């Protein structure tokens, strides 16, 4: 079942269907695809997934009421609207065997609520490219102070797009002088209760590498208890984060390459020495 759903999630991304089914760490990422120039470059590249941020703001040079645009807070202007971003990706994917997916990152419930019309157009069953809806809906380590996106409203709206993968994370306070921390059993338990009560579609849990490496028991519990939702984890990291590489590798291999997306700097990815793509010959 998990392999079949992995194929459905990643559709026909650039690495080939069978390989991605068995090793989701081969999925590659472009980040902050928030303007026309970068979108064009990302579509022309061999990356699998385009991550982009949505805020409510204005298109440069245009007047009118605020709309969902591609920008990272605190920016409130862009040359690219969410509607144009999604339609451009759809046009690029039209008729192609190798389709690129999108991960839409929402930092506020207001941006998510006002994006529903645009998302609905591309969450229909006949649309085949992967669509992820991401938000940090709970406070996490280490005593994170960033305000999470309101969880019940996010999950309620996310349920209206059952084709989409819900990417549900925690805010974090890590990096720089903060080099130790873990996801607590209470933080994992709160997420588990929310998901069990309100989610009935595929879900992935983005976890910060340096924290996840210290949290294997509770993350394994979370994934075991949500297996019926074909759950996965998405390991991510910021540049310079302290990471116990051996522990992280053990976590990834224990969870399984078929249930782990890897979105970390290349230097860290190389240190993990994960099994290579199946079609790489030595």
TrEMBL record:
It comes from Iphiclides podalirius. Residues 1-16 form the signal peptide. Keywords: Signal. The keyword Translocase does not apply. Belongs to the menorin family. Residues 23-268 form the Menorin-like domain. It holds the Pfam family Menorin_N. InterPro entries: Menorin_dom (IPR019356). This is Menorin-like domain-containing protein.
